[in-house]
Structure formats: structure tokens, C-alpha cells
């Protein structure tokens, strides 16, 4: 399935999600009880850290800083392709990827999911239905299942498309090679054209299926990252609290750099062309700065404690958390740890596990400030 069709599918699904929750949005607009109104008014008027000029300066500093950190993180694996130690089949590549996967996993559990709980359990929302049902975990569960469905369907369409394009070609080539008496007529493995290493057509097809799998992983992971990056940037851009923005800039730089490294490693394994790589790098790098700029533009209109904002942001955070959990655990960590590379070395497994814990722990510590 082309990436444009995949993006259209996910966009349609998000639109359906918002349409399905529109009755809840309408219900949330009903006047709240007096205690809830008083609490929201107190939150809105709390000016202990409220400083518009300083907040604006921090946001203007944060936009280029986060942009540069994102570009560096996602491009490092791509430019490191020329370094022998960082080739996708080397041990160091798996260690770095495990660290970045830990960052992505911790982002979902320690940052995005708690934010969704805070939003949907806010006293600014009516108790019925928001505090009578765990909407955050429910939406996160649906998002994880939905991600599995999209992942599976995209891979199926990819394989059918490739099979239809290559119908008849592999079998005729195989017959020609089998009937050829010349020693040169054999299948070479990638990077080992020594005449003694042979690969069967089944191995070549398995390699192509794995390549298509890697490309599906990149597209789904990119979509999940884009959703929560825009939401985080929007909240940061609309905030006027210096106490919130200052630590958030540092945390976002750390987050974007190492999350970008994980995405960049997946892009490298997907073996995309230059244009596709540039597009993926561009969207990842600019989503958070775009969200900040959008928040700045909507400062006069957007109120982060309004019922509509709380519900929309809370549902998007919950969906993003479910998607990130699935991608980090299933597509990144489980795929590597259950693969032949790590299964062939207990030492490498332990090193990668340590890297996962370091990445997840570092991002968990950041949750103290952001």
C-alpha cells in the first residue's frame, strides 16, 4: 500500500474516532457544577509562573532548538551508514536501536499516557461520564488493536502488490538458472559474491518480505510519533507558564533526539530512496515545532483547561500511547530480541536489554520535569 493511502486510512480512522466521540464533546459543553467551575477558574487564574514575555522567549528559543535536535537524532543513523561499526547487521546498531526503542516505550508509558489521564480526569470535565469510565485505557487498547490491524493489512497489500508485479518472473529466472550449465548462473547473497555462498529463491523472497515489513513499521511508527508530537507542541505553544515551558524544552530535545534515532534506524533498515527518506525526516523534525507555532497562533483562542481541548487532547494522547506501546514492544523490541541476531548471542541480548533499560529510565527521569 502506498504511504499516501496508508496516511489516508489513518486520517479517516481518526476522523471516525472524533465523530464517534462528538456526542461526548457536546455533553462536555454543558455547564459544569459550581465546584468544578471554581476549580477551573482557580487553575486559569493561577499566575505564580504566568509570564507572557518570558514564555514567548522560551518558546521562540525552543522551536529551533527542538528542530535541530530532531534533525540530528533522525539523521544520525542515516549518515552513520558509512561507518562500518554502525551498519544494520553490526552489534552496535542493535544496541543503539534498543536504547532508542526504550526511549519510545517510556515516552508512551511515562509521558503520553499520564497526560491523557490528567486530561480526561480533569475537574473541569463533568463527572459523568469522564470519571465513571476509564476512557484513557479504553482508547489506548483500541489504538493498539487498530495499529495491529493497520500493520497487518498494509503488509498484506504490500505483499499482494509485489506478488502481482513479479508474477511469473521468479519461476522463469529459477528455471533458467537451474538449466544453465555455467558456474556463474547462481543466486548470490547480498554482499558475498564469492561464488561459494548460494541463496535459494525462497531466501530472496524472505528478504523482500522483511524489507516490506520494515517499510510498514516505518510508516506506522512515523504516524504515531507525528500525532503525539503535534499534541505536545500545541500544548507547549499555548502555555504561558514559564515553570512548564523551561523544563519541557530540555526534555523535548532529549526526547526528539533519541526517538529520532529509533526512527532513523528503522528508516535505514527500510532502504528507502532519497526522496522518501527526506520526506520522513522532514515530517518527524517539523511536527513538534509546527505544534508549538500553532499553539502560539492559537494562544488567544486555545484554552488548555476548556472541556473541548481536554477531551480532544486526552483522546489523542491515549490513542498515541497505545500506538507507541505496540510499536515499541512488538515491532521494535520483540522483533529484534526474538530475531536470529540476538538469539544467537546471550551476551548481546543482555547488553541490548541494558540499553533498553537505560533509554526507558532516562526518559522516565525526564517525566519529573515534563
TrEMBL record:
Principal localization reads membrane
Q: Which domain of life is it from?
A: Eukaryota
Q: Signal peptide location in the record?
A: 1-28
**Annotated membrane topology:** Multi-pass membrane protein
Query: GO cellular-component terms in the record?
Result: plasma membrane
Q: Which GO terms describe its molecular function?
A: zinc ion transmembrane transporter activity
Q: Does the keyword ATP-binding apply?
A: no
TM region positions: 60-80, 92-113, 133-158, 216-236, 280-298, 310-334, 346-366
Q: Where is this region: Disordered?
A: 166-200
Question: By its UniProt entry, which InterPro entries does this protein fall under?
Answer: ZIP, Zn/Fe_permease_fun/pln
- Keywords for this protein: Cell membrane, Ion transport, Membrane, Signal, Transmembrane, Transmembrane helix, Transport
Q: Where in the cell is it found?
A: Cell membrane; Membrane
Which Pfam families does the protein's record reference?
Zip (PF02535)
The family annotation for this protein states: Belongs to the ZIP transporter (TC 2.A.5) family.
Q: Entry's NCBIfam families?
A: zip (TIGR00820)
Put simply, this protein is called Fe(2+) transport protein 1
Q: What is the lineage of its organism?
A: Eukaryota, Viridiplantae, Streptophyta, Embryophyta, Tracheophyta
